[in-house]
Design a protein that fits this description.
Elements lengths: L6 E3 L1 E3 L2 E3 L4 E5 L6 E6 L3 H17 L7 H17 L1 H12 L3 H8 L3 H14 L3 E4 L8 E9 L2 E5 L5 H15 L2 E5 L6 H12 L7 E3 L4 H10 L5 E5 L2 H12 L4 E5 L4 E5 L5 H13 L9 E7 L3 H12 L20 H16 L3 E4 L18 E4 L6 H4 L6 E7 L2 H9 L3 E2 L1 E5 L3 H10 L4 E4 L14 E2 L2 E2 L12 E9 L20
Bound molecules: nicotinamide-adenine-dinucleotide (NAD).
Length: 507
């Protein structure tokens, strides 16, 4: 297809559209058709964006704007996300292949409420707190002030570009920072639109910039840039380690949301009338390309065969197809690379002796000849030490492993280098809560999954990350705490200077 007929998108730097000599092609994951081109930014563009962000920050045009005004602008941005939901869905799904149903409820539907939460935080966050002090050694007034860190960089993946971007942009703006965002090269469209909307609603030029470019070039430059104060990243654990290393050169603040291998315990008393669909929902939503998915299902040995049979029966009804059709349950995976990566994991699982109770490769049919497809896959005869049970597959792939006792289930769930999410299916709420307390993960869902709420913290134990996004403390990651001490003693003999100079000044 000729590139003449498709739209070209530029970057957004210093309040302006900025083009680059080279371009990326964005192809539909469902059809492989060219849908648009994007400016391919370079290190120079990253530097220009950081310079603009720094200038805006130092000018005080946003960083010293009264918090009520920042909040009002952010609320208007949230409204626009609601008003332009359909356009955002189209921009997001043409590049990442999410079904329109998922994008409405999740990928883009969450944008407005999440932005609204941060708009409210801009007003309600405790930017200043007076601490009562004793009059010893001297009488003083002490204040803790939370100030914006300065210039933030956000490096965002392709699975939920808009929402995962807003988890960084929202608190950064609420606290008064400037930000440079680097979306994944495959999926920058919804974030580019978000930056334009923000500018139109009154976020000053330079405060919110988008640079599109390769991770290893533009992303790495932002993570190591001497004038970036904080870097926030969501993506693979391997690149997360690299971001940490790059940021260490100038001791930047770092927050990382990385991989997961969510362990789920189906207790013997689980109500299968909803837990079976729940386990599939937890693992296979958006073709399993979610870091917080529940991908290892541990089932009591007495219930194992029944649960596997029901999982296969229900997963067989998941309808793959055109993601723009509201009746489609599951779309493609994001790229040929991602599909091949998943197929590689499935080959290895087979070689390791696992059995495919369902799926195990690409679906068959003429409609799947183009695009990047993986059929819902359920794997049995698998142990927790196999690669398929240890590494993040990022596909619609569920491993089902039997356990003997609750202690055994806890051991299996916690035997992972990851600790992002875990879950329990049970009708005994007390037992489920006791079990939840023993699972080493940042979020534990009991009898549900994917319940991400902007007012509740999200992040990982172990190698799933550093720091927390969302929740009442989200702005802590985007502010520095400053202690200001105002001494009220006002008399030499009451001040502790005699620790150094024992005789006061003669009168
Ligand atoms: P990735 O970690 O390579 O990419 C995430 C982001 O990091 C993208 O914006 C990318 O451009 C950028 N990036 C890549 N290399 C970089 C570097 N050297 N310096 C700075 N930034 C860099 O993820 P991927 O390759 O797209 O996917 C691979 C696997 O990662 C997936 O199969 C999945 O297991 C995992 N993943 C996890 C998440 C998540 O939400 N935690 C998201 C996407 C991918």
């Amino acid at each position: 297809m000729s590139t003449v007929s498709v739209k070209h998108h530029q970057m957004f730097i210093d309040g302006k559209d900025v083009d680059a000599p080279q371009a990326f092609e964005i192809r539909s994951p469902a059809t492989e058709e060219l849908v648009c081109t994007i400016a391919k930014g370079s290190v120079e563009h990253a530097d220009a964006a950081v310079e603009s962000a720094r200038r805006a920050f130092e000018s005080g045009v946003w960083s010293r704007k009264p918090k009520e005004e920042r909040a009002a602008i952010m609320k208007r941005i949230a409204d626009r996300f609601g008003e332009e939901l359909e356009e955002l869905i189209e921009l997001e799904t043409m590049a990442n292949g999410a079904t329109v149903r998922q994008a409405t409820g999740f990928h883009c539907g969450l944008a407005a409420p999440h932005m609204l939460y941060f708009a409210e935080q801009a007003e309600s966050y405790e930017f200043e707190r007076a601490i009562p002090t004793k009059a010893y050694p001297t009488h003083s007034v002490n204040t803790i002030i939370r100030e914006p860190v300065g210039v933030c960089a956000a490096i965002v993946p392709w699975n939920f570009p808009l929402v995962l971007g807003l988890w960084k942009i929202g608190p950064a703006l609420a606290a008064g920072n400037s930000i440079v965002v680097k979306p994944d090269e495959k999926t920058p469209l919804s974030l580019l639109r978000a930056a334009q909307i923000a500018y139109e609603e009154g976020v000053p030029a330079g405060v919110f910039n988008i640079v599109t470019g390769d991770g290893a070039e533009v992303g790495a430059r932002l993570a190591s840039h001497p004038d970036v104060d904080k870097v926030a990243f969501t993506g693979s654990t391997a690149i997360g380690r690299e971001i940490m290393r790059l940021a260490s050169g100038t001791v930047k603040k770092v927050s990382l949301e990385l991989g997961g291998k969510g362990g789920v315990v189906m207790m013997p008393d689980a109500d299968l009338s909803y837990s079976i669909d729940g386990a599939l929902f937890g693992c296979m939503l958006y073709s399993g390309q979610i870091c917080e998915s529940g991908t290892r299902l541990f089932v009591h040995k007495d219930k194992y065969d029944e649960v596997v049979a029901k999982l296969v029966e229900r997963a067989s009804t998941i309808k793959l197809g055109d993601p723009t059709d509201y009746d489609t349950d599951m779309g493609p995976v994001v790229s040929a690379r991602q599909r091949d990566r998943i197929l590689g994991y499935l080959d290895q699982a087979k070689a390791d002796g696992a059995t495919f109770a369902l799926g195990g490769g690409a679906p068959e049919g003429p409609e799947f000849e183009k695009g990047y497809w993986i059929a819902p896959t359920i794997i049995t005869n698998v142990t927790n030490d196999m690669q398929i049970a240890r590494e993040e597959i990022f596909g619609p792939v569920l491993v089902v492993i039997p356990y003997d006792s609750i202690d055994h289930a806890v051991e299996l769930v916690n035997d992972s280098e990851y600790g992002l999410t875990a879950g329990v299916w049970s009708t005994d709420y007390e037992a489920a809560s006791e079990l939840a307390a023993r699972l080493r993960a940042g979020t534990v869902w009991i009898n549900n999954w994917h319940m991400v709420d902007p007012s509740l913290p999200f992040g990982g134990y172990k190698q799933s990350g550093v720091g927390r996004e969302l929740g009442p403390d989200a702005l802590n990651e985007y502010t520095e705490a400053k202690h200001v001490h105002l001494d009220l003693a006002g008399r030499h003999d009451r001040l502790p200077f005699d620790l150094l100079i024992s005789t006061p000044l003669p009168e």
